[in-house]
Amino acid sequence: MTKQRFILVSVVPPSCTKKQAEDDLQEIQSLIDTYGGADIVDIIQRRARPDGGTYVGSGKAQEIASLVEKKQIDVVVINGIARASQLYHILQLCWKSNPNIQVWDRVDLILHIFSHHASTAEAKLQIELASMRHMGPRIYGLGASFSQQGGGIGTKGLGETNVELMKRHWRNEMRKKQEKLEELEKNRERQVTRRHDQGLMTISIVGYTNVGKTSLFNLLTGKEKLAKNVLFATLDSVVGKLYFKEIQKEVVISDTIGFIQNLPPTLINAFKSTLMESIHADILLHVIDIADPHMETKIKVVEKILRDLKIENKPIFYVFNKIDRVDGKRIAECSKNYGAFLPQFISVHTGVGIKDLYYFIQEKI
């Protein structure tokens, strides 16, 4: 299958350095790789704020349209949350060069990735609902354009009638999907309640995406859940068990969706039912890639999302993974700087530190 070709567009303030702008594009480039596309062109546009009409300004929008033709681009991605009208105006400029061109913002790209990775009915419904919520304002925004084309002043044009039909259909579909999801959520709540009634402690593995959470989950539970070197390999919360023979006690361990920077609040809300395993957990293991040069920033991202979910007050312990890629100095620094979180140091790849982590968890329960 031929990979789709992308233009990535990032609008940054004039005060932003070139290095900061390039770092900002790194993650969305990883998202493109996860989606399966080929990153062809990066555009960094310096503006105090996004342009109201085209997000990037008319001149830059024309440049994008020219590149779509010259480079045979399939998808234009804006690295931000854009309004429907802004995406539509860029789309109009690119239609002549490629009638099948797609123009997405950051949320669109993440939702497309989610739709590829969802496996359970619950995750699929969550993604469908998140997509519809994201598209809802877009339907209304484009509807205004169609209405203006369809009728004159004081008239009700054909476009306006179509928009009303679209709105009604959108609301009905949203309601049906929400009802289905609520039923699945009730089932999950019953499972969580049942475990607590049985006295089973729950440990939830959380962290930034692609830090080795699922690989650690597999090691601790003996499961063989998919673990890939891509963003969002895990969308569903998956539960396994770990038995401590020394104290004859069993605990439940869950692996959850990985977090990323600038994850829109609507997407966090969409996965709240999946994240229920973390919300109701007794202990959180925050897995961190110690070899990541942006480690400190990503720790803050995870901490913020945990605060947004109102679960930052639970016992949280840091588990630094991939220690086989760093030297002793780096480990000593993390041990000192994050001592309050009783940090554990492991390598899922080599197995170093896993036994120590096992006994650490046993002590905490």
UniProtKB/TrEMBL annotation:
GO cellular component terms listed in the entry, alphabetical order: cytoplasm
Swiss-Prot/TrEMBL cofactor(s): Mg(2+)
InterPro entries linked: G_HFLX_dom, GTP-bd, GTP-bd_M, GTPase_HflX, GTPase_HflX_N, GTPase_HflX_N_sf, P-loop_NTPase
Binding site for GTP: 207-214, 232-236, 255-258, 321-324, 347-349
Residues where Mg(2+) binds: T214, T234
Family listed: Belongs to the TRAFAC class OBG-HflX-like GTPase superfamily. HflX GTPase family.
Purpose of the protein: GTPase that associates with the 50S ribosomal subunit and may have a role during protein synthesis or ribosome biogenesis.
Name this protein carries in UniProt: GTPase HflX
Organism (species): Candidatus Roizmanbacteria bacterium RIFOXYD1_FULL_38_12
Gene name in the database record: hflX
